[in-house]
Amino acid sequence: METKRSSFTGKIGFVLAAAGSAVGLGNIWRFPYLAAKYGGGVFLLVYILLAITFGFSLMVAEIAIGRKTGKSAIGAFASLDKRYSFVGWLAAAVPMIILPYYSVIGGWVLKYFTGFVTGSASTMAADGYFGNYISTVSEPLLWFSIFLGATALVVLFGVEKGIEKVSKVMMPLLVALTLFIAIYTIVTMDGAWDGVKYYLMPDFSHFSIMTVVAAMGQLFYSMSLAMGIMITFGSYMKKDISIEKSVRQIEIFDTGIAFLAGLMIIPAVFAFSGGDQSALGQGPGLMFVTLPKIFEAMPGGTVIGALFFFMVILAALTSSISLMETIVSIFMDKAKVSRRVGCLIVLGLSILIGVPASIGYSAWSGVTILGMQFLDFFDFISNSIIMPIVAFATCIFVTFVTKPKGIIEEVELDQKFKQKKLFSVVIRFVAPVCILAILASSILSAFGIVKI
Ligand code: PFF
Q1: One-letter-per-residue 3-state SS of 19-50
Q2: Band (17; pLDDT cuts 50, 70, 90)
Q3: Band of residue 165 on the pLDDT scale cut at 50, 70, 90
């Protein structure tokens, strides 16, 4: 059955919907811990450089491919060249890997929110609290199920619109609060200024190839690239809306929020630990360890903390909903199942992958894959392996199938493509070479063949 594709109404509608998917835990939880771990200022610099060249070009290409074909990833690649349909399938696998562990982190945020609301804020600020919490089995699993269940309910009843409306109102508040917390920390806490310096002044002695690997993986993750999402968004986009401008706006928005989140967390890490390497490099737990300490030190911190975690939940939900919606619609299209069955299948698969991700920190903490805990492994396999492969294949696809001209024509349906030179150089030469190098180094380091 052919269903008519709906399209976004106003210009701002497209940008807001894409930004709603882009802004999520990636910005608030993932970006700060990577920036802290991989060199502070150098990481920020590499990230911004990659965003304005590589992220920009890839997002333009994906949206244009979607708008040109009017199809989502699997159909879009296949309709232009059958040999590339595997790229669509590979892209489609990414949200399926991300959604389960995204829900594990979403569950952690829920736990912290309820903790603040029920008056356990100071318990949560205590040293070692987070580590002890995730090393228990049942509670993290319970919150994971609630987060995943809520996502599934929204997708099942198709009430995304309601959630999106609420989160559109909350988003500016989230930005304002993040800024406030950052300024509060920097102004009132001893040692925070060293963190500002670490975060804003690139020190090239902290640079390693891992800085680039991590920054590129984060770029894909944060901007929802190389997973078919932007192709689907493009397929809903009207022809008279400027792709180039929209991409710039999404990028500024997404990077801006990530930047602020880093500014909120990294100086605080310095204030509490003096910039000790093990505190900076602690990984996924960073936000959960640092934020409660800031709130504890702040007058009215319990209320502000509760409000903050609530808004993070909303941002995470809009992202998890778009992740799940993408997978469910693939099952509906390709396996010809109903929305309800599609939701059930995705829910089942998410539990199958999400449970090991959650108990990988507790009951299964002894089990590692390539030296990584389950959650880290799922994150690694999607961000550092599959997404670079999809991104590389997209570049090759644009170079040989649509040709850069095909994309440029689509972009110019509305107005002149100002950065078309940059676009065609990056997509044909710079991006494929960089991606291959990065892919090779992350595979070699995962297998312990080289140490980077
Ligand atoms: N970009 C989201 C984030 O930064 O949290 C993660 C994400 C959401 C990826 C939705 C993909 C997606 F479809």
Answers
A1: HHHHCCHHHHHHHHHHHHHCCCHHHHHHHHHH
A2: confident
A3: confident
pLDDT of residue 275: 84
Output the ligand 1 site: residues, CB below 6 A: 21-22, 24-27, 95, 98, 221-222, 224, 227, 229, 319, 322-323, 326
Confidence category of residue 232, pLDDT binned at 50, 70, 90: confident
Q: What is the pLDDT of residue 1?
A: 38
Q: Which of 30, 222, 346, 382 to mutate to test the pocket of ligand 1 (most atoms within 8 A of CB)?
A: 222
- CA–CA gap between residue 54 and residue 48 (Å, rounded): 10
This prediction has a pTM of: 0.93
Query: Distance between CA atoms of 24 and 22, rounded to whole angstroms?
Result: 6
3-class secondary structure for 225-278? CCCCHHHHHHHCCCCCCCHHHHHHHHHHHHHHHHHHHHHHHHHHHHHHHCCCHH
**Token pair of 344, please?**
């059930």
Q: Are 97 and 378 in contact (CB under 8 A)?
A: yes
CA–CA distance, 172 with 178 (Å, rounded to integer): 10
46-66 as b/e, with b when 16 or more CB fall inside 10 Å? Answer: bbbebbbbbbbbbbbbbbbbb
- pLDDT reading at 74 higher than 80: yes
Beta bridge partners of 369: 372
Question: What is the CATH T-level fold of the domain 23-446, as seen in this structure?
Answer: Hydantoin permease (1.10.4160)
- One-letter amino acid at 119 equals G
